[in-house]
Model the fold of this input.
Amino acid sequence: MLEVDSVNQYYGGSHILRNVTFTLPSGQLTVLLGRNGVGKTTLLRCLMGVVAIRTGKIHWNKKPLEKLPPYSRVKNGLAYVPQGRDIFPRLSVEENLLVGAAGNRSVRTVPEEIYKLFPVLKSMKSRRGGDLSGGQQQQLAIGRALMGQPQLLILDEPTEGVQPSIIQELGRTLRHIVTEMNLTILLVEQYYDFAKHLADRYLVMSRGEMVASGSGATMDQDGVRHMISV
Ligand SMILES: Nc1ncnc2c1ncn2[C@@H]1O[C@H](COP(=O)(O)OP(=O)(O)O)[C@@H](O)[C@H]1O
Ligand SMILES: [Mg+2]
Done:
């Protein structure tokens, strides 16, 4: 379980995260929703340690993470698929995947499990990452994150720039990762219908604060669509 307690974060003089407090139950998919600019990406970067928090606590399975650098958090089971994917355009698909296991010297090949999850990556393993479509690059970024054998997978707007037919497939894959592979997922998403379809739990942020949370099944009744519409 991830436990986040009273996290505060500033960029210069502006207070970006305000006493952010929530928990993520293990083995479930939690979606984090919120309008543009409310601090979702900043929160994820704080969870990974890419930016330091000013105050607050972050525990993963009772272990304090807030002082650990990003690579230690990865070693402790966290994985991050950043907004915009950040794959290496000049490396092959296979090389991109192997980069995800760089912290583990015993991994020299891509496990068949990854290619089973994303068959398209197998058929394109020698192609350059930059030559893949948006949806394929997103699959590559998720595959790369899974190479570290994480327990918690954190994704920032994976549907951005991905065509509708691939978005559905992506949803099925994320559900499979939770249900069959037993991972915990935190998914930042602006696309309400996709989020509602997948969520076991939801969280809503507004102007740096966590303002609502609940079961995925009651998102409509709880008025979540209204909270995030512009
Ligand atoms: N590196 C940065 N330096 C200064 N301000 C930033 C930086 N990154 C984001 N911000 C600001 O912090 C706020 C939250 O941004 P962000 O976390 O990206 O929001 P979201 O992901 O919800 O769209 C925004 O007002 C944004 O302009
Ligand atoms: Mg963002």
About this structure: The chain has a mean pLDDT of 94.
